[in-house]
Design goal:
heterodimer; A: 98 residues; Alpha-Beta Plaits; two-stranded antiparallel ribbon; 4 strands; elongated; B: alpha/beta; Rossmann fold; 2 domains; seven-stranded mixed sheet; six-stranded mixed sheet; 18% strand
């Protein structure tokens, strides 16, 4: 898939939409579905990783400080991480809010 | 040397699949299709056809197994009828969307309820929009010939679409007809090996039947539509090649004494031959009538159809299915759509008859055509007429 999904015409599709490129689902940006995004107060993070276990998208990993943080390219904004976090690190805010 | 033999049409269709050297048959028996797959099971069991025969627990599974088989590039056949066809429905759409060249014989039969094992076209009409190429045949010879053509059409890399051959249940499947079975060597020459371009292969992995988000789904459907439209050229090319090799000609729309006739009857399937006899008798009685037969149901042959009816004043359309509460018989509805925007067009009179195995005799067709002429002149408050109902 040289072109992004938004650029592809019907002529660019393989026969029967066969996917020939391994791991191409990785390019699928489910983050655009989001209406709320997680915000973080990492001072409270105990790095337990519970949020990453509960994340249905599997998009939470450790940043370079070792804190757990969602990859917003994939995060759909479901808020489960915020609900499950013991120490209330995560607050969901509307996408429109800065 | 090819000779004409007396053979049951279902057995002949199975023999045609053997001649095509199918690799996989996944099927579930259902009346009136059973003899086709039963005979194929025999051929495989006796070692006369080197194929994998997959007995499955339902038609849904039959078509699902066919998907997997066709995806590996194996030449794949199945057959069904009526309730079996509608049980497959979900998977039929998958087969066409995935562009898998499966060939299926459909022994046309009424849908329950009331339960009927006899013929009509309600099963066909329920799968009209599944994206399969659909060809109607009128006799045993056509069933054999078009089964062979279907593999070549479906597997052509410019097409890659699953293909149905519609043959009327009992009226065709269970009759013994004189049929010329082509020689195996001739079929081998006509039908090249199946070369699916991107088959399942562990050395070159691909993902099939995957998800399409809203950003790409409509492009995928449009690709399918463009491909189906383009398939008509290949279908005609294959029929033409078949004509050159075997001497029997098939066309998307076939005409019988229709050139210049002011009244035409349009038919599909085995009843077409009875209608031809009725047309002959009406011509002998001095009536200006002719017949048009729709062989290719999908892709609908718009140009050929419009050309065939352009000089007619009245077009009587026979439907063997009811769109309950709808505008007309399903074929008549399509025909009306195909003609609506033309400046000059015949008046279309929709007749529904021959449901659930009810016969339409020569006299019946003469009545239908005569009534159709009358209705075209006087008009009718009905969206369609039903023929042969006791009131």
């Amino acid at each position: 898939m040289a072109k992004s999904e938004g650029e592809m015409t019907w002529k660019d599709l393989e026969i029967g939409c066969i996917v020939t490129e391994p791991g191409s689902a990785r390019k699928y940006q489910s983050g655009t579905w989001r209406s709320q995004r997680p915000t973080y107060n990492f001072n409270r993070c105990i790095k337990c990783g519970l949020c990453s276990i509960f994340c249905p998208e599997g998009c939470i990993g450790q940043n370079k400080e070792g804190n757990f943080e969602a990859d917003l390219y994939y995060c759909k904004g479901c808020g489960i991480c915020a609900k499950e976090c013991w120490t209330k690190v995560i607050t969901m805010v509307e996408e429109e809010e800065k | 040397m090819t000779t004409r033999i007396g053979i049951e049409v279902s057995i002949a269709v199975a023999d045609a699949v053997q001649l095509c050297n199918a690799d996989v048959v996944a099927a579930y028996p259902i009346t009136p299709q059973t003899h086709i797959v039963e005979h194929l099971a025999e051929l495989v069991a006796n070692g006369e056809l080197d194929a994998e025969y997959i007995p499955v627990e339902s038609e849904h599974s039959a078509m699902s197994a066919c998907l997997g088989s066709a995806a590996t590039g194996a030449r794949t056949f199945t057959a069904t009828s009526s309730q079996g066809l509608v049980l497959m429905d979900e998977v039929l759409f998958v087969a066409s969307g995935m562009r898998l060249p499966i060939v299926m014989a459909v022994a046309n039969r009424a849908l329950s309820s009331p339960l009927s094992i006899w013929g009509d076209h309600s099963d066909v009409m329920s799968v009209r929009d599944t994206g399969w190429i659909q060809i109607f045949v009128e006799n045993g010879q056509q069933a054999v010939d078009n089964t062979i053509c279907a593999f070549r059409i479906a597997e052509d890399n410019r097409v890659l679409l699953p293909t149905m051959i519609h043959l009327d249940g009992f009226n065709l499947t269970h009759v013994i007809e004189p049929i010329i079975m082509p020689e195996e060597s001739e079929v081998a020459k006509f039908l090249p090996p199946n070369k699916f371009p991107l088959p399942l292969n562990p050395d070159k992995p691909v993902a099939m039947g995957s998800f399409a988000a809203p950003g790409i789904f409509i492009e995928a459907k449009w690709a399918q539509e463009q491909n189906m439209k383009a398939s008509k050229k290949v279908i005609m090319e294959v029929w033409n090649e078949f004509y050159k090799a075997f001497g029997r000609q098939y066309l998307p729309v076939e005409k019988y004494k229709s050139d210049g006739a002011k009244v035409l009857i349009l038919t599909m399937g085995s009843f077409s031959e009875t209608a031809s006899v009725a047309v002959d008798e009406l011509i002998d009685e001095g009536k200006d009538v002719g017949q048009v037969r729709l062989r290719l149901w999908r892709p609908f042959p718009f140009d050929e159809f419009r050309q065939a009816v352009k000089d007619a004043d009245v077009l009587v359309v026979l439907d063997r299915a009811v769109s309950v509460g709808g505008p007309a018989g399903p074929v008549a509805s399509e025909v009306k759509s195909a003609l609506y925007n033309l400046a000059k067009k015949p008046k279309v009179v929709s007749f529904i008859a021959g449901l659930g195995g009810r016969d339409i005799t020569v006299k019946g067709f003469k009545d239908i055509i005569t009534k159709g002429i009358e209705i075209a002149r006087t008009g009718s408050k009905n969206e369609y007429e039903i023929y042969g109902v006791r009131e």
